[in-house]
């Protein structure tokens, strides 16, 4: 595949990813959740198995402290 075509396809792909991110960001905002908390809930819902905070952090690329803080906040809010 010519380099110009590859660059064009990568650009299109990146634009789709940005649009997708914006959609999820909007959902999190409408729910009144920090984006990080939204992704934690999304990950828990999407996975059929129970996950530890460490596993969630690994899947989302988040530090353990961030996951622990977000999970505590979600629990306080009744999630």
Overall description:
The structure is a single chain. With 79 residues, this protein is mainly α. 78% of the residues lie in helices and 0% in strands. It has helices spanning 3-31, 35-46, 53-60, 64-76. Helix 3 (53-60) packs across helix 4. The mean pLDDT is 94.
Shape, per Cα inertia axes: elongated
- The proportion of residues in beta strands is under 5%
Number of helices: 4
Which class do the helix and strand fractions yield?
Answer: mainly alpha
Q: Outline the low-pLDDT stretches.
A: none
State the separation between the terminal residues, measured CA to CA.
48 Å
Question: What is the C-alpha radius of gyration, as a whole number of Å?
Answer: 16 Å
User: What series of H and E elements makes up the topology?
Assistant: HHHH
Report the count of strand segments: 0
Share in helix: over 70%
- Give the overall pLDDT as a whole number: 94
> Major sheet, described briefly?
none
